[in-house]
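Minutes, project check-in
Item: structure for the 116-residue chain
Input as provided by the requester:
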Amino acid sequence: MAGSVTPEQIYDAIEPCALDALSVDVTERRVRLDLHVVNGGTPHRYSLSFDAVLSFRLDRPSTAPWNHTELSEIVIERSKQHAGHWRFWAELWSQDAIEIVAERVLFDGSEVQGAA
């Protein structure tokens, strides 16, 4: 993908998906999610990157298996609490969630733009 992408396009591409890797660069305030979707038996790999991260939350129940990493109920929207920021939220382990608030979101290098 090149240019820009809307939250709806990301949702259509990755809902639901599996989380393969999560990386956090504390110094740069950057978070990256490596994801894959199996569509028609063919795996498709994507990345979601978050720049100028304001907050990051990962809730995981102590009994959840680490090998089950499906993300579902994905939301990418403008943050209501933080002007100029995006909020990413997804259900993880079917019980808890991952939430990231950042100034900039990139999907495979394309910047997220437009209303959610």
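Outcome recorded: Residues 49 and 79 are 17 Å apart (CA to CA).
No further action items on this chain.
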